[in-house]
């Protein structure tokens, strides 16, 4: 990987003794970097000082179509945040590479080998020219891994109470904590919009979430009304349906009062929550009943799970 010649490793005596990596950036680069990092879940729980150290340490890498950014089983060097480009994810199953997903101009990858000191768990290949922001292993471990230790302490007890995660081993539940980030919403704020493409899954930590669905008032009526179909409170989850069905969001979600949610991205959802799928599917079957009770039929869900 190219490292700009201007990069420095400085000793910062004010906050800690560990070396700090700084890759100088133009204003334009820093702005693009901030934009690319805005929705990265692993960065959400960092305090402003930690975030600024992460941004200082990141450096840009351009890639070409077909380039292997990561090869499964290699050692981990960097964590990557996507600025642009599309990438395929392959995982070896019984010796053959299987396409398990892709990234489309957003998201991040390469955290697992750095978090758990394990070989790379997947191969990532660019399927277009692209631009990535890279964070070196040492800075990642110093800041993100340390932050994860705090997160585990904070959420361990709560995670243990979630019925959804009972099929997971303790170590798997801790991996769930590692990938979760918190998001706070104010009263009436929209969390999910019906019809949007989906890229994350939510668990309510505090407050109430109102789930609503748009329905035509009559069969011939063009106007739609938004009807409340459920509420979720502490320990309950939502936003799984679109990830399971690969369809747009089936309903909207709004905060009632102030709400705190734990959020997980689709890749982590697929990688970690496989064993919880039975519970989720049983619950999805309940959605149909719920809609039949409310509306007399549930065409949306029937189409989605067909
Ligand atoms: P890492 O193991 O460091 O390098 C490969 C990356 O691919 C991995 O971190 C994850 O960020 C990402 N990835 C995406 N989907 C998967 C998956 N299903 N299994 C393993 N890794 C995945
Ligand atoms: P998703 O479709 O991803 O986004 C909206 C969420 O609302 C959906 O996932 C479910 O988690 C949740 N939900 C709750 N009740 C229902 C229901 N009856 N039909 C569809 N979605 C529901």
From TrEMBL:
The Cyclic nucleotide-binding domain, residue ranges: 42-161, 164-290
An annotated GO cellular component of this protein is: cAMP-dependent protein kinase complex
Question: Residues annotated as region Disordered?
Answer: 1-28
Q: Which UniProt keywords apply?
A: cAMP, cAMP-binding, Nucleotide-binding, Phosphoprotein, Repeat
Residues recorded as binding 3',5'-cyclic AMP 1, renumbered to this chain, are: 111, 120
A molecular function annotated in GO for this UniProt entry is:
protein kinase A catalytic subunit binding
Q: Does the keyword ATP-binding apply?
A: no
Q: Which portions of the chain have biased composition (kind: Polar residues)?
A: 1-12
Positions annotated to bind 3',5'-cyclic AMP 2: 240, 249
Gene3D superfamilies per the record?
A: Jelly Rolls
Locate the compositionally biased regions of type Basic and acidic residues: 13-28
Keyword check for ATP-binding, yes or no.
no
Q: Which family does it belong to?
A: Belongs to the cAMP-dependent kinase regulatory chain family.
Q: According to its UniProt entry, what is the function of this protein?
A: Regulatory subunit of the cAMP-dependent protein kinases involved in cAMP signaling in cells. Type II regulatory chains mediate membrane association by binding to anchoring proteins, including the MAP2 kinase.
Protein name as annotated: Protein kinase cAMP-dependent type II regulatory subunit beta
Native organism is Oreochromis niloticus (Nile tilapia)
